[in-house]
Design a protein that fits this description.
heterodimer, A: 254 residues, 39% helix, globular, B: 687 residues, alpha+beta, eleven-stranded mixed β-sheet, 65% helix
Chain lengths: 254, 687
């Protein structure tokens, strides 16, 4: 059984007279341990889709199942609890608390789950090790580089061992070196830890690290390619082909 | 166009402006209510004494109003400056679009005028409504009847309020004009980027500073509240200064230590949102140390003023009931002008004075007693206390004991006759015994100690021993407060008439109803004044005389009580509102700035309840911190006030403190609630 299943999800904005179909009848499923990238040009509806999966936004129609739970039917307290226990988030602009140190930022995710201080300490140190941020744990966000910040944010997202990690343009604010480092860490988490990751991006290079790429155009699922046994370079070329087909601007795609 | 932009600006930032506007409205309303008392009470049917008191009250209020206006002015300037800072980005945008500084200043002028007129209008409306209630309160205080009551609007108070507040708004406008004129586009644009640097103070330095400040504060407390022997004006001034400075440094060091202390408790710090909550709080306190200090001191002044005012008022009213048990009290004595003699008043008889005009004082009263006290000029409190003086004054809280005063003597028969007239307990004494009567605060306890030792006294050639080990709680002369510092009662045969001191006359009128008494009082008073005006003294040295009456004393007590209460409430209200407003503005704007943080907490899946709890804790501790220190200050301050008040007050302090707490909780707590709900709504808003 697949971990995540989307069934005819639709999300409309605006009134009857000027309707925007941001997500227009999308269905797909994600297996446990998959690293999925969702690609599309600006305005294609990929972030809206991610927001629907993360329950930050509500769908207009359709259903989203995580395991057996229909998350479109959750309300209020259940929603918060669902996000807290089942999901991990990584944002383009890091979204770290500027008043807290890296350690405290990561620990926050655990302490709101009401874990004990001892358990928290152990988990934070372990995840910091994996992401190579042990030496910045006592620093504040303003003292870190973008790459470090994003790795701290990633650590915060996975420290709770969520069912699903959602990343919204995680490399968007990073230079290419930091981006590469981060994506390699994602791969590591995916392979070694079996973390299920859904990543939204408009960058083909970033997407080439995934094992599967979904393309969205104008709110609809346009294409899907699997990496299979390809090398990353080969997979990247395939992605470029689809992007060209999509008619997206090359500068926008790269 | 300008007007339209300003109007929409206000509408847009209504959340920020709500507390500001609310505070202005309260300020205007309170200002009007107190200044309208004169007009509001014009219709009351009160007697001349009370009319006089109301006049003093209104004069005092207009005096205090100037001070209040200054406080409100500072608050308004602070608040407007604060609100302007929050709009730097907006101004930057205007300037970038090419708006001139004059235009922006004009925009601000428009906004201030709109808010000013709005707050004046709403505030005056509320004030006019409240002042009708105030009339009832005043009437109740002065026991005047409200039958002629009409709905009153005081034009003079309205004009005064408008005048004072217009000045404040003009100051605000000028200030913002200057600020706009000075600022540069680049600083405005960058102002949005708040420095996210977290400055951690050196924890050891904080601990040291805290300990030093606590020690200094302890010294200041000790000086004003406990160490009464060495009290001098200089030391009090020094203690106040030390208190202010150490208050500042206590906030400074606590802001640095609070976080460290919590952080060291890992189990607590990493539980739920605690780490977030305390970081927020610590940065908030770090940036408001100066305001916190001012707020703490203002709360301190408010608590002391209010509870002292209520204490005085309560004890004033009760004091007359307890200590003025007779309608009329007169005294008369001839002046001896003997410089070697401390008590230079001796003998003289009021009967002679009346007799010179062929009148008799006894005709004016139903029941009365006429008597003398006896004085041996070198018998003073020090003589009585002997070598125990040092020990007694050292342990005592009574300010009287520090002075040396002549103790007067009373014949047993006179004392008992007076007590019978007052409806109080009479006493028995055997030959060779004496008794002590006193009721001034602290004195009876002191005499008890002396009587326990069976201290013998030698006066008028007789040696006497105490008849009882207890001092009698009484006073042979009426007063508005318990002020008898000590009278010794001796058997009739133990005194000789040559030691006669002052001639006393106490009496009750024969009428039973209020009207009758008032009429008789007028007669008695006229007669007393008449006979003394034409009196020819047998010696060249003149004489002293005086009368006090129960009706007059009651009126004075009510009047003084009312003046003190109104002034206390006036100052207290404004101070509390100012404190609440500053904290609320700060807290609300912090919440607005922290909105993204709360958004992120939600994305992380924090429950609404936990977010509310965090906001509650943040604003709760923020409001509580200055209050706690202010309460500590007040404890020492009240101890100091108590020794001063002992001259006036015998009332206990519980009730006034409860009253004060109620007012404090109502206003300060109200602002806290407003802040908490406002922050919660603000943070919730963008879903």
């Amino acid at each position: 059984m697949s971990l995540l299943r989307l069934e005819n999800v639709e999300k409309y904005y605006g009134s009857r007279s000027s309707l925007t179909k941001a997500v227009n009848d999308i269905s797909f499923s994600v297996e446990k341990g998959e690293f999925t990238a969702i690609m599309g040009a600006s305005g294609s509806g990929k972030t809206t889709l991610l927001n629907c999966i993360s329950t930050i936004d509500r769908v207009t129609a359709g259903h989203i199942f995580l395991e057996d739970t229909d998350i479109t039917s959750l309300k209020g307290k259940e929603l918060n609890r669902f996000r807290r226990d089942k999901l991990g988030f990584i944002f383009q602009d890091f979204n770290l608390m500027d008043t807290l140190t890296a350690y405290e930022n990561i620990a926050l995710a655990l302490s709101i789950q009401k874990r004990s201080a001892k358990e928290t300490d152990k988990a934070v140190k372990a995840v910091a090790e994996q992401l190579g941020i042990t030496d910045v744990l006592e620093k504040y966000p303003y003292q870190m580089s973008g790459g470090q910040k994003q790795r701290v944010a990633s650590a915060r997202a996975i420290v709770t061992e969520p069912k699903l990690v959602l990343a919204d343009e995680p490399t968007g604010a990073l230079d290419s070196k930091s981006a590469k480092l981060l994506l390699e860490r994602f791969n590591y988490l995916n392979h070694e830890h079996g973390a299920t990751i859904i990543m939204v991006t408009h960058d083909s290079f970033t997407a080439s690290y995934a094992s599967r790429v979904l393309f969205i155009k104008d709110g609809k699922l346009f294409n899907e390619i699997n990496r299979g046994g390809d090398s990353r370079k080969q997979f990247f070329d395939k992605i470029i082909d689809v992007v060209t087909l999509l008619g997206g601007d090359v500068s926008d795609a790269l | 166009m300008l007007f339209k932009i300003s109007l929409s600006n206000i509408r847009k930032s209504i959340k920020d402006y709500a507390v500001y506007f609310f505070t202005l409205v309260i300020g205007v309303a309170v200002f009007y209510v107190f200044n309208a008392i004169e007009t509001q009470t014009a219709f009351l049917k009160v007697n001349e004494d009370q009319r006089e008191m109301i006049k003093i009250l209104t004069t005092a209020i207009s005096g205090v109003s100037v001070f209040i206006a200054v406080v409100l002015g500072l608050l308004i300037v602070y608040a407007s400056r604060f609100l302007m800072k929050r709009r730097n980005k907006e101004f930057a945008l205007y300037m970038m679009l090419g708006m001139s500084k004059w235009k922006i200043a004009g925009l601000l002028l428009c906004e201030t005028v709109i808010i000013g007129i709005g707050s004046l209008f709403v505030g005056l409306l509320i004030g006019i409504g409240l002042s009708q209630v105030m009339s009832a309160v005043v009437a109740n205080l002065f026991e005047a009847d409200m039958n002629d009551y009409r709905f009153t609007v005081s034009a003079s108070a309205i004009l005064k309020t408008i005048f004072y507040f217009s000045i404040m708004y003009v100051v605000v406008i000028l200030r913002s004009g200057v600020v706009i004129g000075r600022c540069r586009l680049i600083t405005l644009m960058n102002s949005g980027r708040r420095s996210e640097k977290i400055t951690m103070k050196n924890p050891w330095l904080c601990v040291i500073v805290f300990l030093i400040s606590a020690a200094v504060l302890g010294w200041a407390y000790h000086t004003v509240g406990w160490d009464f022997e060495h009290i001098t004006e200089r030391r009090i001034g020094l203690a106040i200064l030390a208190g202010i400075v150490s208050t500042f440094f206590i906030f400074w060091s606590v802001s640095g230590m609070l976080l460290r202390v919590i952080m060291s408790a890992k189990g607590v710090y990493h539980r739920g949102l605690n780490s977030f909550t305390f970081r927020q709080l610590s940065s908030k306190i770090n940036t408001t140390i100066a305001s916190m200090t001012v707020i703490c001191l203002m709360l301190f002044v408010t608590i002391c003023t209010l509870s002292t005012a209520f204490t005085i008022r309560n004890s004033m009213n009760k004091g007359v009931e307890d200590n003025f048990p007779v309608d009329f009290y007169g005294r008369f004595a001839l002046h001896t002008h003997d410089s070697s003699d401390d008590s230079s008043y001796h003998t003289g008889n009021i009967d002679d004075v009346y007799a010179q005009q062929n009148m008799s004082i006894y005709d004016d009263f139903g029941e009365y007693h006429h008597f003398y006290d006896y004085i041996e000029s070198n018998f003073t409190f020090d003589t009585f206390a002997g070598d125990r003086k040092e020990e007694l004054t050292g342990s005592s809280m009574s300010i009287y004991a520090m002075m040396n005063f002549t103790i007067s003597f009373l014949k047993l028969s006179d004392y008992n006759a007076v007590m019978k007239l007052y409806g109080q307990k009479q006493i028995e004494l055997n030959d060779g015994e004496y008794a002590v009567s006193a009721n001034a605060a602290g004195m009876p306890e002191m005499y008890d100690k002396l009587l326990e030792d069976s201290t013998e006294i030698t006066v008028f050639g007789n040696t006497l021993r105490p008849g009882s080990k207890k001092c009698i709680l009484s006073s042979f002369y009426p007063d508005i407060q318990a002020s008898n510092t000590g009278t010794i009662i001796v058997p009739d045969n133990a005194v000789s008439e040559k030691y006669r001191g002052v001639d006393y006359f106490v009496g009750n009128y024969s009428a039973a109803d209020k009207k009758g008494k008032e009429a008789e009082e007028k007669t008695a008073r006229d007669h007393w004044n008449y006979v003394l005006r034409w009196y020819k003294s047998p010696t060249e040295n003149g004489y002293m005389s005086g009368i006090e009456t129960r009706i007059e004393a009651a009126n004075n007590a009510i009047g003084i009580g009312a003046i003190v209460t109104f002034l206390g409430l006036y100052i207290g209200f404004i101070f509390l509102v100012s404190c609440g407003a500053i904290l609320a503005l700060k807290e609300l704007s912090e919440s607005a700035d922290s909105m993204p943080r709360y958004m992120m907490l939600r994305k992380l899946g924090v429950e609404e309840r936990d977010i509310s709890k965090s906001i509650f804790r943040q604003s709760g501790i923020f409001f509580l911190l200055p209050l706690l220190l202010a309460c500590l200050h007040s404890y020492a301050g009240m101890r100091f006030a108590k020794i001063g008040l002992d001259l006036l007050v015998t009332e206990n302090y519980i009730k006034p403190i409860i009253f004060t707490a109620v007012i404090l909780i109502a206003i300060y707590g109200g602002y806290f609630l407003l802040t908490f709900l406002g922050s919660k709504a603000m943070v919730k808003e963008q879903k």
